[in-house]
Write a structure and sequence with these properties.
Elements (H helix, E strand, L loop, with lengths): L7 H5 L20 H7 L3 H13 L2 H9 L15 E4 L2 E4 L5 H12 L4 H9 L7 H11 L3 H11 L6 H6 L18 H7 L1 H15 L10 H6 L7 H21 L5 H21 L3 H7 L1 H16 L1
Antiparallel strand pairs: 1-2
Helix pairs in contact: 7-13, 10-11, 11-13, 14-15
């Protein structure tokens, strides 16, 4: 038998385990009329005992008769009942409410449609969604920047494909190139203006001695997990994406000079915030290569 059975009426009569199916005379209680009268078992309960007994293999019935039970050991129901949590059998007395809630939640929870959409588009990539969702909160202090990436991950950023459907614009074409329908993937990754912009971002990072051979589609959309200078690099990628989307709204082409100016402003703002929160050491560690470059660039000016 792979599953436990429980009949309240039998349990109240003291029949809780298979050993209880055997009388003191080492015979099945079904065959002991005295035992049945002693227990005052109803005809319905007798029928239940019959079904239980018939379900036991003959070898089990014989072994029960010779089984030695230590009667001085107390029996507690909660020591016997087990539940399946996370694919494992666990004693119910060790279960906490949070574990039960998590198990029930996981049975009904479904991934967001945006996540399924990305999984289908990046079918050859492993998308670690827990890390992807947490990344913006680890790398940036700006809540607007975090909000922007959250909207991107949930495919809530407006593109011309949507605006065309609701008759706001006359064409679905990309706001930058005007050649291909403007999906999120095309705008941020495939558009040749975007590609040129990302090439400039790579060169900008190389000037800080941060080597990135290539920004894949996955890296652009979701960030680069567990890379060198992870916090700084992913912060720059977030700022670059936000600026690129701003160019779409302002109908202008992206410029690495404008992006560089925005990064300088963000560096100054984060420095002030970190100083007021007594977290300047973490700020300096994150921005160390950028800070060193600023010092080098300003040194000739100071000499003059």
């Amino acid at each position: 038998m792979k599953e436990s059975l429980y009949f309240k009426a039998l349990a109240e009569k003291g029949i809780l385990r298979m050993r209880d199916l055997i009388s003191e005379n080492d015979e099945l209680i079904l065959k002991s009329h005295c035992k049945l009268r002693e227990l005052n078992i109803s005809p319905l309960d007798v029928f239940r005992l019959v079904t239980l007994t018939d379900a036991l293999p003959m070898k089990w019935r014989e072994s029960l008769k010779t089984f030695v039970y230590k009667g001085d050991e107390p029996f507690y129901m909660h020591n016997e009942i087990k539940v399946i949590l996370n694919g494992q059998s666990v004693l119910i007395k060790t279960v906490v409410f949070k574990s039960v809630y998590r198990e029930l939640r996981d049975r009904i929870i479904t991934p967001p449609t945006a996540q399924l959409n990305f999984n289908a588009r990046f079918i050859n990539d492993v998308l670690e969604w827990k890390e992807i969702y947490a990344l913006p909160f680890r790398v940036a202090l700006d809540t607007k920047l975090r909000e922007f990436q959250y909207k991107l991950l949930n495919r809530c950023l407006v593109t011309n494909i949507l605006l065309y459907k609701i008759n706001v614009v006359q064409s679905q074409a990309c706001s930058l190139c005007g050649e291909i329908d403007e999906s999120l993937e095309h705008f941020f990754v495939s558009c040749h203006y975007s590609k040129n912009f990302w090439a400039e971002v790579i060169k900008w990072l190389e000037n800080l001695d941060i080597k990135i051979k290539q920004l894949s589609d996955k890296y652009i959309m979701f960030g680069i997990l567990k890379c060198e200078d992870e916090l700084f690099v992913n912060h720059i990628l977030l700022v670059a994406k936000q600026y690129l989307y701003f160019c779409r709204q302002s109908k202008s082409l992206p410029s690495i000079k404008v992006l560089s100016s925005k990064i300088t402003l963000i560096y100054q703002i984060e420095a002030m915030i970190s100083k007021s929160n007594n977290k300047l050491s973490a700020h300096n560690k994150k921005w160390s290569k950028y800070k060193n470059k600023l010092v080098c660039n300003s040194a000739p000016l100071a000499a003059n």
